[in-house]
Amino acid sequence: MIKKFKMLFSVSNVLNTWLKADLPRLPNKEGQRVGVHSLASDEYTCCWQVHIIDNAYKSRHKTIIACEANSRFIVFIPVDSKLTLDELAARLQMEWQYSLAETLKQLRAIPSSDIAMLLSELAELHMDTHWVKNTDLSISGHISDAALWVSQTLAEQGLNELPSDLCTDLSIHINTEKKRAKNQKQKFMPIVKMMDYCQDILMEPQPLPAKPDLASATHTASESAAENSTLVGNNIVQLSDYRR
User: Fold this and answer.
1) First-to-last CA distance in the chain?
2) In whole angstroms, how far apart are CA 240 and each of 7, 113, 114, 181, 199?
3) CA-to-CA distance for 224 and 59, rounded, in angstroms?
4) DSSP per residue over 143-210, as a string?
């Protein structure tokens, strides 16, 4: 297992201002505009684009939206007061893993014991957190779509802020919908790509076993729990196969 792992949080100008942070920019690449570098996660670095929106015009209630670079996995954090970078890092770290576990649990794609194993393995990674001021424009559209879901949900339910359970529900819904990215030829489901990524970073550097067919277990977001519960055989992800 990788003992040290870098978490790179790329924050928008709006969030940087709200945090009152003086964050560095990513090193400029030739021919690319400053502050709009593309992000890509790999086995050593997990990249997130992070933004903040007002729940209403000039409201103190806001929602932080984070999107993982490769999978477009979305999480939400409701806030009504300033956070330090350390506080936000802890919230983001907790929320994406919690949302991952809850999505897998609702889909019934893997046993609960394997979900617990996955969280335990992730907790053993040494997360080295880095912050930069940057906006990946290819991710901005996904964050804008997620922001619309927040605004519509608040309006429909007459709320000023999203309670934590509603944040989770929204995350589950969005992360089980098919998406398309510029660098992806086919549509994909965020939960599938995020699960694949987690298995990759937890895997020993050895010949890779065949990827579990989680996609077939989650082929539509509107499937009933009863349908998902029928998954058997090779459609069950056995995380014990990926133990270090």
Assistant:
1) 6
2) 25, 10, 8, 31, 11
3) 37
4) HHHHHHHHHHHHHHHT-SS--HHHHHHHHHHHHTS-B--TT-SS-B-HHHHHHHHHHHHHS-SSPPPP
Q: Under a CB-based contact definition with an 8 Å cutoff, are residues 114 and 198 in contact?
A: no
DSSP-based three-state secondary structure for 77? strand
pLDDT by residue for the chain (244 residues), tens digit each? 445 789 999 999 999 999 999 899 987 766 667 788 999 999 899 999 999 999 998 889 999 999 999 999 999 999 999 999 999 999 999 999 999 999 999 998 789 999 999 999 998 888 899 999 999 999 999 999 999 999 999 999 999 999 999 999 999 999 999 987 666 678 899 999 999 999 888 876 544 445 555 555 444 434 433 333 333 233 334 444 433 4
Cα–Cα distance, 243 to 239 (Å, whole number): 7
